[in-house]
Amino acid sequence: MKYIYFFLPFLLVSCKTVTNTSKTTSEDKTEIAKPITISYKVNSEEVTSFLKELSSDEMEGRETGEAGMVKAADFLIDFLKANQIKPYFKTYQDTLSTFKMPAYNVVGFIEGTDPVLKKEFIILSAHYDHIGINKNTPNEDKINNGANDDASGVTAVAQMVKYFSQTKSNKRSVLVVFFAGEEKGLLGSKHLSEKLHQQNFNLYTQLNVEMIGIPMKRDFLAYLTGFELSNMAKKINEYSGKNTVGFLPKAGEFQLFKRSDNFPFFKEFNVPCQSISTFDFENFDYYHHVKDEFQLMDTTHMTNLIQEFLSVITLMTNSAKKEIKMNAK
């Protein structure tokens, strides 16, 4: 997650849970969607091994422009190739024009199965970069592994697109994006959103995944940034048949909607582009810290979250009409 150091003195402030309600407007008269049963099972061992590899010391903290980022990108490209996920551009590498050092997003593509709906895209995304190595510190551990931020989100997206690759259950097309440059100021998402907008990319919605490695002690599984801007939360909960996402006051207070890779796409396309997260300022003490390591992650929780979202992303890609909409101002 993009730097929020100046908020850290407030991390111990408790968060009041707000009931997840959403008013129906004249712009949102779609029928209530019925949840579907997904027989596909997310493999918890694969979740664990993927997260462990991506957040290992060998990746050197995955800082954009450094060797560790290249190693992480190669790992992600190998994953896409192994799952027969094609590159969207000529290669998987989308080179950033806004960064002096070698830096690139990793972008894959799963074509939709419906001849009409496949012209519309859903973006599933997470950032794979982190903040690298503490070079000027006497501490023995110098590597910021970024297991929660955001190897956890990348792991979730990887398993989601693996599901689509194996089941061919997406009528709309899916763009899978692993962003670089998030920690440098959302450089990867700014670059790609502008590029796609210039190419008249037909974006329906974006679901970005940010820091989901630790569960929350709340009556919902994750929170959605920019909760009030669209009906995405309402539709997610309809699609899952559960209270899957809710409203976290701290997310608004700290403007998290503007601090992850959903925001540049929202600005360019003016469609619902939002992030899910379980980092609630109470459950994780090692934001941008060398102790953000694999050993602290709850991979059972992560597996359950990914599994619950399979019905959500399936119905997102398969609805006959665009059901997720911006709320009227």
UniProtKB/TrEMBL annotation:
<dbReference type="GO" id="GO:0008235">
    <property type="term" value="F:metalloexopeptidase activity"/>
</dbReference>
<dbReference type="Pfam" id="PF04389">
    <property type="entry name" value="Peptidase_M28"/>
</dbReference>
<dbReference type="GO" id="GO:0006508">
    <property type="term" value="P:proteolysis"/>
</dbReference>
<protein>
    <submittedName>
        <fullName>M20/M25/M40 family metallo-hydrolase</fullName>
    </submittedName>
</protein>
<feature type="domain" description="Peptidase M28">
    <location>
        <begin position="105"/>
        <end position="306"/>
    </location>
</feature>
<dbReference type="InterPro" id="IPR007484">
    <property type="entry name" value="Peptidase_M28"/>
</dbReference>
<dbReference type="InterPro" id="IPR045175">
    <property type="entry name" value="M28_fam"/>
</dbReference>
